[in-house]
Amino acid sequence: MTPSTSTPSQSVGQTDYFGLNIPFMESIGLVPEHLSTELARTRMPHRPDLVNSRGDVHGGALMSGLDFTLSAAARAHEANTGMATIDMTTHFLSPARGTVIFEARCLRKGATLAFCEGRALDKDGKLLATASATFKIVRRRGGSD
């Protein structure tokens, strides 16, 4: 994939997630911001329906944002590929109480696997969570399937 940059979008109905239509990411309000072979960045604006019983952003919402952003970092290196998460480890370091920024990098991409790491930050740059993931590279076949 050629490195590209997306501009943040606040509009409802955002369906372009670095070239993919992913309704679940739209449902959690994830906003794609930047994609290059060096960095993938997304943002999840705070919403009351994404919090847990303590009022912090739910860990599942954080993990979903991390998973997508990590996989985008891997996809940035090769057009027409998908990523299937094999393994993801997340460490929660601090409660998320507002908008969350996700950043991810692909550490290594082989013929069948990609290894990525990322982090979740608050608007002031405070580290909220870290994650590492292994993805199976799914190459799309030409023609109709």
Strand content: 35-45%
Morphology: globular
Largest sheet at a glance? 7 strands, antiparallel
Say which CATH homologous superfamily is assigned: Hotdog Thioesterase
Tell me what the structure shows.
This protein has helices spanning 23-27, 59-75; strands spanning 4-5, 31-35, 40-44, 81-92, 100-109, 113-122, 127-139. The protein has 145 residues and is an alpha+beta fold. It has one domain: Thiol Ester Dehydrase, Chain A (Roll), CATH 3.10.129.10. The longest helix has 17 residues, at 59-75. It is globular, with a radius of gyration of 15 Å. Mean pLDDT is 89; it is low at 1-13.
Topology at a glance:
Layout lengths: L3 E2 L17 H5 L3 E5 L4 E5 L14 H17 L5 E12 L7 E10 L3 E10 L4 E13 L6
